[in-house]
Write the structure tokens for this entry.
Amino acid sequence: MPDSAKEIAEAAEITVRVIKDLVASAKQLQWLFAKAISMPRLALLDLEKIFAEIDKSLMAVDEATKIFFDAIQNPIEFIDHDSLLHEMSGTGLPSLVESKRGHCHEIGQIYHRYLNGILSRVFQDDADRQRVKSIFDSLNNADGDVFSLLTSAAMKMRDLAREAYRLKILGKRQEAIDLIRDAALPLLDMRDKLNDASITMRQISIEFIKEARVAPVS
């Protein structure tokens, strides 16, 4: 497998690992807050926003992957389609993910604005409070080592298209076609896992709302 296609496979593997970590954090928060003795309504709304912020990242990468995968489904047509090859070689996909993905500072703001101040009131168990705080500390510092890795997946797609473009210009058309063909399966697998993760995130949010013991309005 050429280096660019290997990089796509590695980027897909990293992306899958990142989304698993994000979904695992959401599941932990759902489970912990479902145990809360009495959930203020503002806390319920804030948790929904945090789940939505995580899901935004999944949807952003999925959208970029779908666009790229649709473009390269037929490697021969893709290599012969100069305008599409040029488009996929540009900044569009990384910019799309960067603009639409979730951001840790948004999660941090939600947490510090309200949730942090009520943990001692809604959790009887100090270990549960510390676990919630630990998850939010991790998410609050995740832009550099978690969320931004999702943007790098789109950058690898761009780099792959650029390498294919270069090969075509050098008269190595078949190598360009093979390069694109080798990248298709890792991308398809990543798309499947992104879709599964997004479905799971929505289930987490729905189940959380059902399970949460919300305090009555006083």
Summary: The chain has a mean pLDDT of 83. The chain has nine helices and no strands. Residues 173-211 form the longest helix (39 residues). The CA atoms of residues 75 and 156 lie 17 Å apart.
